[in-house]
Design goal:
The chain is of the alpha+beta class and 215 residues long. The chain has helices at 8-18, 23-30, 34-41, 49-59, 63-66, 124-127, 196-204; strands at residues 91-95, 98-102, 112-119, 136-143, 146-150, 156-158, 163-167, 172-176, 183-190, 208-209. It starts with 7 loop residues before the first helix and ends in a 6-residue tail after the last strand. It comes from hydrothermal vent metagenome.
């Protein structure tokens, strides 16, 4: 059986070994505390978006590498892979319209990107310009109600337990439905093109707030 793709911890260990750094030296180069790096290397802790961005910038690593996407070389067969996801270990990205929780980020070369999204905007006007990115996406309403705005269709309301599948290259936006302060949806994004994670991260732009990773 083939080994699964490296986790973020394995990636950081390999990077540290390649540079012949101790944990202390890695900490000095990255600005991440030694204790945090140790937990990440042993796959006991993930990092929030701001920490991954910090690693990317200070260590000159592509952001998508840290999100376990786009490994170089031929794609090996995928055999018996699995990942357990929960909000405590998700990579959290908070924006004006949404709070994103990226799940199962330790898996590399995923064909799908799963995430939980909290939706706060109450109208298309409040949301602003429609967003679009490569691929397709599936949205399932976990709680609350939402209205889906899209470039080529009239707005459609979805209640708890309902779902929608759409072309993500089409401009789209999700806002809360009538009398709903906040909605929670499960989203799964997929694309045949490389670089989907980079495209999703670029959507956030500068409109981002960060949370501290759990120790």
């Amino acid at each position: 059986m083939k080994a699964s793709q490296p986790t973020l911890g394995a990636l950081l260990r390999a990077l540290r070994s390649r540079n012949s750094w101790t944990l202390k030296e890695m900490s000095e180069h990255s600005g991440i505390p030694i204790s945090t790096l140790s937990k990440v290397e042993h796959d006991r802790l993930t990092l929030t978006y701001d920490k991954l961005l910090q690693l990317s910038q200070r260590l000159n690593i592509r952001m998508s590498e840290l999100f376990a996407e786009n490994d170089a070389g031929a794609e090996p067969p995928i055999t018996a892979r699995r990942s357990l996801g929960d909000l405590d270990h998700a990579v959290r990205v908070n924006t004006r319209n949404y709070d994103y929780y990226y799940l199962c980020t330790e898996l590399r070369r995923k064909r799908m990107i799963p995430l939980i999204t909290r939706i706060r905007s109450k109208s298309a006007e409040e949301f602003g310009e429609l967003i679009h990115h490569p691929g397709e996406e599936f949205i399932y309403v976990v709680s609350g109600r939402i209205v889906v705005h899209s470039e080529f269709y009239d707005p459609v309301a979805l209640e708890e337990g309902q779902s929608i599948y759409l072309d993500s290259t089409m401009g789209h936006a999700y806002v809360t439905g009538k009398d709903c302060e906040e909605a929670v949806v499960l989203a799964v994004c997929s694309s045949a093109e490389d670089g989907l994670m980079d495209s999703l991260l670029n959507l956030h732009g500068d409109d981002v707030e960060y949370e501290t990773a759990r120790a």
